[in-house]
Amino acid sequence: EERSMSVLLLILKIIGIILLVILALFVLLIVGILFVPYAYRVKGSFHGKPDLTASIYGLGHLVGIGMILTENGAKIYLRICGIRKFLQSGNKENKTGNTDQYEENMGEGQKTDPETGNYENLPMPEMQKIKAFWQKIVKIPEKFKRVIARIRDFFHTIKSAFGNAKKTIRKVNCLLTNESYKSAFTKLKTSVWQLLKILMPYRLKLNLEYSTGSPDTTAQLLGILTMFPIGYQNRWNVHPDFTADNAYAEAEFDVKGRILGFSLLKLILGLVLDKDCRKLYNHFKTMKA
Q: Taking the alpha carbons of 26, 30, 35, 40 in that order, is the dihedral positive or negative?
């Protein structure tokens, strides 16, 4: 009995140690999520075609997600402990090649080029030509009716959109002038500014060479860019081209920043627990219903 009791105590001790280890790992994970900053980076260039890489990492770059955007499409990947796994690939290239230069289309005797879309009319009997021409003539009234219906639907959509916009403006104006919701809008405005401060990058590099095609507008745009402190604080390299006849822009940029999970959680909880914000949310919910 003493031996079985000691074995049982040993098993309970091992189970307790395992549970404590799991609890400690869970606490470390929560602390890491809340108090270890998330690093984000957006790096890319534009030389006639976009080339962009955006990523965000947490827990000391152990876990992250990112996106690569090129002319072939977007690729989303997940990175865990340095191992990258693509979740979504870009647009697949056409692997069939140009072996099938033509495909049959619009009945027998006609083929089309997949690249140019031009039709190559092969020799056909005169009777088939007359029949095809007569079919086109017969379809003209139907096409005309479809065009008229589309125009009527378009104007109906524009009319309903204007009516909905007026109703929406009226509702928003009533909300903004309602005394019971003023504190909620003030809270939302303050939270938006706090969110912008949290998301503000600590480094924003930019190398830009541009031209608007006209020397005066190129100089005006340069003056507008120099008005913002973010430009000279990050030492942007902006090179205006006053001699170019056509408008163009070539840029290279690198944006880095940090986000603290605790700050985001505090901001979200402040909105959720505020009774005025909950009242405003319930108002929108009932309006939607």
A: positive
Pull the structure tokens for residue 271: 């909105």
Residue 156 three-state SS: helix
How confident is the model over 186-224, as pLDDT tens digits? 888 899 999 988 888 988 999 999 999 899 999 999 888
Q: Are 79 and 85 in contact (CB under 8 A)?
A: yes
CA atoms within 13 A on the CB side of 216: 0
Closest residue by Cα to residue 223 from 248, 249, 254, 215: 215
Q: Which residue blocks in the chain are alpha helix, DSSP H?
A: 2-35, 126-177, 182-199, 215-226, 229-233, 261-272, 275-288
Give Cα 124 distance to the centre of its chain.
52
Retrieve residue 270's tokens.
């402040």
**DSSP-assigned beta bridge partners for residue 44:** 52, 253
pTM assigned to the model = 0.59
173 — pLDDT class (breaks 50, 70, 90): confident
